[in-house]
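Hi everyone,

Forwarding the result from last night's run.
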Amino acid sequence: MKQSIILWFSLICILFSRSVFAQAPFPAFLQGTWKVADKERYEHWDRMSDGELKGVSYSIKNGQKIVSEYLKIKNSATKLFTPLW
């Protein structure tokens, strides 16, 4: 019984460690349109290159898109940063 618990615990740790380390260093998963829960607020991200995403944050009022900010995420040699425009 004790060996079975240790085995299951080991397998769970391995699975979780793979999911953490398997993540890409650049947040390419952001591509596409995202909706803020319980609000009419959205973000849309486009991949410009392997190391750059550009996005826009907007809301919809009376059927019109109202942009609140433009966003950019860029990968430098050692870190991710969001340049100020």
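The first strand starts at residue 32 and ends at 35.

Cheers,
N.
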